Amino acid sequence: MTPDNDKKTSIATLDRTATLQAFCDVVESRRSVRRFTDTPIPDAVLADCLRLAMLAPNSSNLQPWEFYVIDDADTRKRAIKNCMNQNAAKTSARLIAVVARTDVWQDHAQQILREYPDKPVPKKVKDYYNKIVTLDFLRGPANIVSVAKWGATQVARRLKGPIKSPYYTFEDTKNWATNNTALAAQNLMLALRAHGFDSCPMGGFDEPAMKRLLGLSDDHHIVMMIGAGERADNGIYNTQFRFDQAQFVHYV
After folding, report:
1. In the predicted model, is pLDDT for residue 2 greater than 70?
2. Residues near 122 by Cβ (< 8 Å), separated by ≥ 6?
3. If we measure between CA atoms, which residue out of 159, 200, 180, 145 comes closest to residue 30?
């Protein structure tokens, strides 16, 4: 290997090491912060964090998420009450409802085809979003299509082997949407930490009241409320610890 190649390899190794260290710093320093200072989160910073949130992996790129940043003073006051007046909500610089949608898969499938970056859109991509995605989610009146899908799936498994289970019920679709949205929420919290801010994901809130406040429908599902801001000196309540990794990791 030439000296130039040696130098390039060393630089690449240093870059990887720096990237890993930066990632570890973000993940290891992220805590659920319950009290924040009065320091505001600039709009540009929040916008970048939301951009990074929406780079989260998600099924078929259907992006079944929404983020409601509650900035209006009166709405915020009522939202804090709906969060049981938790300090993480009361002291937050920004309060965000992370919402999963169960009714957008069809519209988003068509939007993907309209905005697909490679033109012309490949036939296999068109077929996937026009046919496979539709078959996956469609339930029909009184779930009649779901019954047919269930039968066809059992036959396919016996004849061809493993096959992905379609979404048979509303709960299946809700689980799909909330799982994907939770990935985006984690991205959001890590992005805030990378920008020098902190967050607290809150599951303790009155969802029906919060949905009424935000004007959401039965197809909207609030996965969590996130309070965000600058960490106060008394913002972390307890020492962080986790159970031993061997308890949870299984090599099979």
Report:
1. no
2. none
3. 200
CA nearest 105: which of 69, 68, 72, 132?
132
Question: How many CB atoms sit inside 10 A of residue 229's CB?
Answer: 25
* Alpha carbon distance 110, 129 (integer Å): 7
* Interatomic CA distance for residues 54 and 27, integer angstroms: 18
pTM for this structure? 0.91
Q: Are 220 and 99 in contact (CB under 8 A)?
A: yes
Containing 111, the helix (H) or strand (E) segment is helix 105-115
The string of pLDDT tens digits covering residues 66-106 is 999 999 999 999 999 999 999 999 999 999 999 999 999 99
What's the mean per-residue pLDDT of the chain? Answer: 94
Instruction: Calculate mean pLDDT across residues 218-233.
Output: 98
Tokens representing residue 74 in the block:
């009166």
Check: CB of residue 69 under 8 Å from CB of residue 49: no
